[in-house]
Amino acid sequence: xxxxxxxxxxxxxxxxxxxxxxxxxxxxxxxxxxxxxxxxxxxxxxxxxxxxxxxxxxxxxxxxxxxxxxxxxxxxxxxxxxxxxxxxxxxxxxxxxxxxxxxxxxxxxxxxxxxxxxxxxxxxxxxxxxxxxxxxxxxxxxxxxxxxxxxxxxxxxxxxxxxxxxxxxxxxxxxxxxxxxxxxxxxxxxxxxxxxxxxxxxxxxxxxxxxxxxxxxxxxxxxxxxxxxxxxxxxxxxxxxxxxxxxxxxxxxxxxxxxxxxxxxxxxxxxxxxxxxxxxxxxxxxxxxxxxxxxxxx
Length: 298
Prior knowledge:
Layout: H1 2-19, H2 21-27, E1 29-34, E2 42-47, H3 60-72, H4 83-93, H5 98-121, H6 129-141, H7 143-166, H8 173-193, H9 195-198, H10 208-227, H11 230-252, H12 254-262, H13 264-279, H14 286-291, H15 293-297
Antiparallel strand pairs: 1-2
Helix pairs in contact: 5-11, 5-12, 5-13, 6-7, 6-10, 6-11, 7-8, 7-10, 8-10, 10-11
């Protein structure tokens, strides 16, 4: 029994260190001795190396490797195969952040992944814009913080809807949405005010942009819940989060970022071809095949 408890503690410790690398590296300090001619070593505080910054932040840790990739790439003639490469270098030289260019190049890839998930797999979600925007939120905040904030906003919007329905308080759509944003702002402020007790440093850097995107998703959740049912709303919301996590993986994979930045022409043309092929596909989706497999066999 003691061995089992020890194994569980070790596994939890490993998960905690792998899920929160940024907070660990920011807070962790190591004491390293400095060699001295005297026999007594003098300890010195050395900060642990910080992890790579998110792709959405304009920092030296983010821009440095990307700009170094552009600098080390050997280019051929500008026409006909390299016009976008030269345009990227001109934009970066003019002051445009390289991470912004990478995000703009990868957003069509994310949209293609979402469209493929809908037409080939059968995942619905809330359209194509919200999963893509939510994936950018995950890049900015991390998936754990993003999902936690999303669940908080969903709970607040459901509570507001329940209050309106209980007290038969009828409002037009826009004033009701404004009240929802008011309640969400208070809820997030409450979480930030509890930071001395929560002691979760990763929440400190949350900006208003992820909160607005998550509020928009919560608004769609409430609309579907009003129009159809809570079960349908939960299903669509879950599928939206799954699509956003898939898109988040696409945005954060280093080799995808590198390939998009160094081969933008291939990325842009491939997206057009794949999107056209997806648009012409009219067969069964994977989830439909699984659902109707008995009928198909018969």
